[in-house]
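Hi Y.,

Following your request, here is the sequence exactly as I used it, all 66 residues.
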Amino acid sequence: MSTDHSLEQRARRAARRAGCIAYKSRRYDPPNSYGEFMVVDAVGGFPVLGWRFDVSAQEVIEYFRR
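Below is the corresponding structure, written out as tokens. Let me know if you'd prefer a different format.
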């Protein structure tokens, strides 16, 4: 459990360093949400990654690592 939480925190920090905000869906409710992350531009408010809360924390980290 703490491993998942620390991975989620790493994803949030990676997004924040790039000027974005990583939101995690708190429920699993398709077709609106897949229960994972969506990354939004902090200034413009538009989705950058995971438009349907469909990217994992690891995918967020890898996206901003590039």
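The CA atoms of residues 29 and 35 lie 7 Å apart.

Thanks again,
Q.
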